[in-house]
Design brief:
Blueprint lengths: L2 H11 L1 H14 L4 H25 L4 H28 L13 H10 L2 H12 L4 H30 L3 H22 L1
Helix pairs in contact: 1-7, 2-3, 2-7, 2-8, 3-5, 3-6, 3-7, 4-5, 4-6, 4-8, 6-7
Length: 186
């Protein structure tokens, strides 16, 4: 697999993390540069880690990973999205201007949006691709896409106001449905 092809694959795979990072940026309202790094790092790290794990497992678990990855991603995104909708629907006495995502929510999002990297890792093993280079590209592109997404959320957060968390939850659930349907209909 050539480097340009690998970069395009990485870009395509990073779109889930990009969308989830926009939601995180909206939830924060006005994320700082440090917020962008804190949110983007797990997305990039899990992209790299899952690609290496998939490559390491190779064909042994190929059927299991490719048969269930979309269901796992859907379930995780639906849980986090549902929690955001519930939280956004509650009346608050003192509305917070800034609300950080919990570490658990961020970890769940990073895992859910990067499960496909494990399947790509399996494919990379079959193609005899150098995994260090490939995983590094997957991780770096996903990190960059998430960083851009967080800061785009900065633009949309103030425009959406109090409804941002509900809309963000709906976006995550929609993203989970998209992942599910893409794999089922493929």
């Amino acid at each position: 697999m050539s480097l340009p092809t690998l970069f395009l694959v990485a870009l395509g795979l990073s779109m889930d993390a990009f969308a989830a990072a926009i939601v995180a940026g909206v939830a924060l309202g006005r994320p700082t540069f440090l917020d962008g790094l804190k949110i983007s790092a797990p997305f990039g790290a899990f992209a790299l880690l899952f690609a290496v794990l998939g490559w390491g497992l190779g064909s042994y678990f190929r059927e299991t990973v490719t048969d269930w990855d979309h269901w796992i991603a859907f379930g995780l995104l639906a849980i986090v999205g549902g929690a955001m909708i519930v939280e956004g629907s509650r009346r608050r006495r003192g509305a917070k201007q800034r609300r950080a995502l919990s570490a658990l929510a961020l970890l769940t999002l990073a895992i859910a949006t990067n499960i496909d990297e494990a399947a790509i890792g399996v494919t990379l093993a079959f193609l005899d691709v150098a995994i260090v280079t490939a995983a590094s590209i997957l991780g770096a592109v996903t990190f960059a896409a998430a960083a851009v997404g967080v800061h785009l959320g900065r633009v949309f957060g103030p425009l959406l106001g109090k409804k941002a968390e509900i809309i963000g939850g709906l976006v995550l659930i929609g993203l989970g449905v998209k992942i599910l349907l893409d794999d089922i209909l493929a």
